[in-house]
């Protein structure tokens, strides 16, 4: 018997570090868009392009794996990290679609980003291949968006960012409840952001 | 948080980010934005503020803007795409952390001042048009945009965006898809309003 097509949401990001805002967003998308799974996909960043350099890819991936370990529908994927150099979403998605014929994919993006979607690399082809889930803050005008390929899900307002977490860690302040416990331990053990 | 209490303190911060010519342009945009806001019914205070801040990052090294965008998990398409877009997106982020600007309308006006977007707010249009017509601007066709901006903000914006795209096409440079979508959006709104 043929298996049912699985609907997968992809959360891309630097995840330096992954935090509770990411997890909250993924969970809202999973529930409201009725996703079977959410895959967290850390982005490859060329090291020469940043001044200080980010936390290395294996560490960012490890933090994601720790963060999703206790959710039965969340997974980490290293697909972008395995590719040579930075990838456009188009290239990654093309690979995902090819490798997983039993799945259909939606890319989860911030509500802000919906408006520049048409500027994305090969957007026309990308939008024929996958769907998008936009995270809308309360009060966002979700009616007027380019194209009809975006499903909006409602997000509670939160104000957690990776920047905030790094700044707090640098000052030696608490990051408990901002990141999952296991991620907090991993950050401390490895003295990231100190 | 915010390290400024008066307009002069804010302007000192802005001035420190850019060279003289850009600063003169900035002041021009703020003044024009205030004027347009008063004319078309947007908030003149917000328009002026967005004018002061719209090019905050414009003269920053690309690497610095890149890092900010990466740190805020902006998608690869923005990072790998047109660098001309970066200063608007980075600017909307940086004025929050550097200057404590939190008003979402002002931040949106900064973010979309280069490209426009589908469904622009009045304030966003005001800042976008002000960027074209401020008194120090001098390019072919600017007078016509200024003239339209006296009575019809949308018409001015349509002409400005159309002119930009035409210019880019003549030079065989890339046109931001978003600018075209904004243009189409404004045109179709115009048609709807004429239909009644």
From TrEMBL, chain A:
Catalytic activity: nicotinate beta-D-ribonucleotide + ATP + H(+) = deamido-NAD(+) + diphosphate
EC number(s) reported in the record: 2.7.7.18
A Pfam family the protein falls into: CTP_transf_like
GO molecular function, one term: nicotinate-nucleotide adenylyltransferase activity
Gene3D superfamilies assigned: HUPs
Keywords, comma-separated and alphabetical: ATP-binding, NAD, Nucleotide-binding, Nucleotidyltransferase, Pyridine nucleotide biosynthesis, Transferase
Pathway(s) annotated for this protein in UniProt: Cofactor biosynthesis; NAD(+) biosynthesis; deamido-NAD(+) from nicotinate D-ribonucleotide: step 1/1
Function (record text): Catalyzes the reversible adenylation of nicotinate mononucleotide (NaMN) to nicotinic acid adenine dinucleotide (NaAD).
Protein name: Probable nicotinate-nucleotide adenylyltransferase
Organism: Brevibacillus brevis (Bacillus brevis)
Automatic annotation (TrEMBL), chain B:
GO molecular function: bis(5'-nucleosyl)-tetraphosphatase (symmetrical) activity
Enzyme Commission code(s) on record: 3.6.1.41
Domain named HD/PDEase: residues: 18-145
SMART domains (UniProt xref): HDc
A Pfam family it matches: HD
Chemical reaction(s) catalysed: P(1),P(4)-bis(5'-adenosyl) tetraphosphate + H2O = 2 ADP + 2 H(+)
InterPro entries on file: Diverse_Catalytic_Enzymes, HD/PDEase_dom, HD_domain, YqeK
UniProt keyword terms in alphabetical order: Hydrolase, Iron, Metal-binding, Nucleotide-binding
NCBIfam families the UniProt entry points to: bis(5'-nucleosyl)-tetraphosphatase (symmetrical) YqeK
Protein name per its UniProtKB record: bis(5'-nucleosyl)-tetraphosphatase (symmetrical)
Gene that encodes the chain: yqeK
